[in-house]
Amino acid sequence: MRCSPIILSFLLSISIEAQPAKPNIVLIMADDLGYGDIGVQGAKGVKTPRIDALAMAGRRFTQAHSSASTCTPTRFSLLTGRYALRQKGTGVAPPDGPCLIAPGTVTLPSLLKQGGYATAVIGKWHLGLGSPRPDWSGELKPGPLELGFDHAFLLPTTNDRVPQVLVLDRRVQHLDPADPLWLAERLPAGQQQPTGLTARASLKMDWSHGHNQTIHNGVSRIGFYGGASKARFRDEDLADQWMQRCESWIAAQRGPFFLLFASHDLHVPRLPHERFKAASTLGPRGNSIAQLDWCVGRLQEILQHRGQQANTLILLCSDNGPVLDDGYRDDAVQRNGGHRPAGPFSGGKYTVWEGGTRTPFIAHWPGRIKPGVSDALICTIDLPASMAALAGVPLPKGACSDSVNVLSALLGEPQAHGRDHLLTQDNNGNTLALRKGRWKLIRRKAAFKTQAVISPVPLPDQPIGLILHDLIADPTEQQNLATQNPEVVRELSTLMDQILREQEP
Ligand code: NG6
Ligand code: CA
Questions:
Q1: Which CATH number does 422-501 carry?
Q2: From atom 3 of ligand 1, which residue's Cα is the shortest distance away?
Q3: Band of residue 179 on the pLDDT scale cut at 50, 70, 90
């Protein structure tokens, strides 16, 4: 049968319309933002009106976790859908560290790319670049572009680590070949330059522990570097530069897109733009929260301006729990007042207590996600499986095997449920926690430094070994119920061992 071109184009348009359009996905991952650091979850001394509005118009999750209590392992799992403890060397990445994810690995962006998405990462990377180490004056490869991102505009690690330059796709932006960038753990022999130790009095923000090497922008950092004078940024301008890049990249898209905006707020050194100087009563830590909130609003404006707001799923979460003094004297402790960065929970960054990984988590998609609050157990590691499901991309066999498809919970569908259980870890996986139902088993292999812990009540000294908490009766994790509940300990230990034994297929 012959079909006239008019009928054919009519039939084609019906079939296109019958296919629900794939939404854009904007994933905002904050840095060190605690459960209690946003207005809707009780923040005091800082206002987060844009984040609060996002939460009110979307779904707010009260039992969402980052998979680890530091940055690198959480981001590793966010992209790969694999628990970071399965790969050695996934703790906080050093300035000169190699790319931690092997090219060819199935990742969150590679899955979305397969589903027809354009993909970009803008902000903090902290997963290493290059192999066996970054070639700062050449191509920084492998990196995000080998892992499924079409575009990258990045701070290589953290801003308290050298170097203070931005990476545009595979190269340091504005690098003058006549002024190459060198980087070292120790100051090379014969090289003279002031440090946080030798020129401490000149610093605009003093350090409290570590962070006393190269000085840039009046702030001393971890590690040594030199050169690249035209490539260096001012910390205070980072958020604006990232927002400009988000805007231009979004404007260039003609089909569905996935943008990972990995904010550096509120990681140390906390140097938000000067216009946020008086944005909170908490000092730089609160002012950085205000800057993050501004970015959330700015992204929404950008989407609105392009007519993309209704068709965009915005997700917001943090990479790990909060910390007050993380190495700089920025008054975070002195000006904290009655604010509870981890909300009602114990512990914070570096710990597997709830405060270390219980993250703010918002899913917002106008017209599609019914506003509300959900207590489904979900984790940042679940985004590869969930976003692949949203994009209609089947997961290749064995890929992202620790990632659970929690899309129905994210969308707030009836009968939706989150995970059955969840493993969380500290930086290197020396301390693990397994959550299942009301129970949480902590397995602690090493003594724990408590310097960074923020808790509503002092935590008892906890032994190396097994600790069992009932999170319903004891949400602040005060009591070890292991001795009274041997059968629960046995069940959760067996499950933990089973998870740890699972290898790459
Ligand atoms: C620690 C740093 C801390 C922070 C952290 C990584 C010192 C004393 N402390 O080693 O300031 O940079 O690493 O944070 O150097 S994260 O959020 O990227 O995991
Ligand atoms: Ca972090």
A1: 3.30.1120.10
A2: 326
A3: very high
